[in-house]
Write a structure and sequence with these properties.
With about 100 residues, the chain is mainly α. It is about 40% helix and about 5% strand. The protein has a domain of about 40 residues: Histone, subunit A, CATH 1.10.20. It contains 3 helices and 2 strands; from the N terminus they run αααββ. The protein has a two-stranded antiparallel sheet with strand order 1-2. It is flat and about 55 Å long.
């Protein structure tokens, strides 16, 4: 598979990577080789391979049941205020 510079830049932005112009060429080659290996794996016949894990053929029925009370569900919280869990401020601003 041939990867162009635009595709490389798109993948890098999705991965939040900053690529310098010096890295473009080697990364293009690396990505093409990786995709080539993946294509090779896709062409391998795996029909004769038997899974060692048992197949899940039947699931239990999904039936409504008793849930936790608010106190039981929130009982392990380190701190509560007005019925809510208190957490450390991670967005900035002033703590209350």
């Amino acid at each position: 598979m041939i990867i162009d510079k635009e595709t490389l830049e798109h993948v890098a932005s999705l991965a939040r990577l900053e690529i310098t112009p010096d890295e473009d060429g080697s990364l293009l080659g690396d990505l093409e080789r990786i995709l080539g290996y993946v294509a090779q794996l896709g062409s391998v016949d795996t029909s004769a391979i038997v899974s060692k894990r048992p197949a899940m053929t039947e699931l239990r029925p999904d039936e409504p049941g008793e849930g936790l009370t608010r106190e039981a569900g929130l009982g392990g919280a380190p701190a509560m205020r007005d019925g809510f869990i208190v957490v450390r401020n991670v967005m900035g601003g002033e703590d209350e």
